[in-house]
Design goal:
The protein has 127 residues and is α+β, with helices and mostly antiparallel strands. The protein is 16% helix and 35% strand. It is built from two helices and eight strands, in the order E-E-E-E-E-H-E-E-H-E.
Amino acid sequence: MAVRIRLKQLPGLYAISRLEPRAGIPGWADGPGFVSITRTEDELSITCLQDRVPDSVKRDDEWVAFKLQGPFAFDETGIVLSVIRPLSENELGIFVVSTFDGDHLLVKAADRVAAIRLLGEAGHTLL
């Protein structure tokens, strides 16, 4: 049985930023909207509303965010795959961020209409 997900588009445009791995978390990173801060040995990655990111920061702009309406159990399978498959099969770029309770899907703003159509055709619902 195919997994059916309800998605909610979040307001605003988002940027995915890259800072040096030992950089401190900048004040501009936190605030309204969806925020994800991930540190690895290679980078500090920050996803937030793009109007907060200084021009001097390495970033990729013009993303729209969709929240997969959870929460989902950690052992629940196929959640992310069910939404990324129809997009990637149609060559739309994606960026996924997982949290304790759920997942967020980001697609380029230019691909928003196509993404909504493809997700609907796959049986998902946009709230």
